[in-house]
């Protein structure tokens, strides 16, 4: 159940980042709102899996930079995870496109803030 809640929160956060940041776009075939939601949930699934498996390894390997920057390097890691998600999802006709690193940094910041706020409002039971 926690995975599904995290998936929906990530989908909302990615949609919000795509709406607010001009270099982030969600590609879909335009078959209607239902199909757009399915594409967004697919992108959120890729993003959630990347955050579950890749992000902890990257954080472990960049631990000295995280300590040196007092955690601000996490923004760079979030941007890299968003770029990785865009690359993985661009292997299909539907997916996420991010124009560059700075766009990914702003998008990662928005996604982090939305995840933080919705994580507080919707506790996972731990």
From TrEMBL:
Family matches, as InterPro entries: Phage_holin_4_2
Top-rank taxon: Bacteria
Organism: Rhodococcus wratislaviensis NBRC 100605
Residues spanning the signal sequence: none
Stated name of the protein: Phage holin family protein
Record key words, sorted: Membrane, Transmembrane, Transmembrane helix
UniProt lineage: Bacteria, Bacillati, Actinomycetota, Actinomycetes, Mycobacteriales
Transmembrane segments: 33-54, 66-88, 100-122
One Pfam family named in its UniProt record: Phage_holin_4_2
């Amino acid at each position: 159940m926690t995975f599904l809640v995290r998936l929906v929160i990530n989908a909302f956060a990615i949609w919000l980042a795509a709406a607010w940041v001009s270099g982030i776009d969600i590609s879909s075939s335009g078959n209607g709102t239902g199909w757009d939601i399915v594409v967004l949930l697919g992108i959120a699934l890729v993003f959630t899996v990347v955050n579950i498996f890749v992000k902890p390894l990257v954080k472990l390997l960049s631990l000295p930079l995280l300590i040196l920057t007092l955690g601000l390097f996490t923004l760079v890691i979030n941007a890299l995870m968003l770029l990785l998600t865009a690359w993985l999802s661009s292997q299909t006709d539907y997916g996420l496109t991010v124009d560059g690193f700075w766009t990914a940094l702003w998008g990662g910041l928005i996604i982090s803030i939305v995840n933080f706020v919705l994580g507080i409002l919707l506790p996972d039971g731990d």
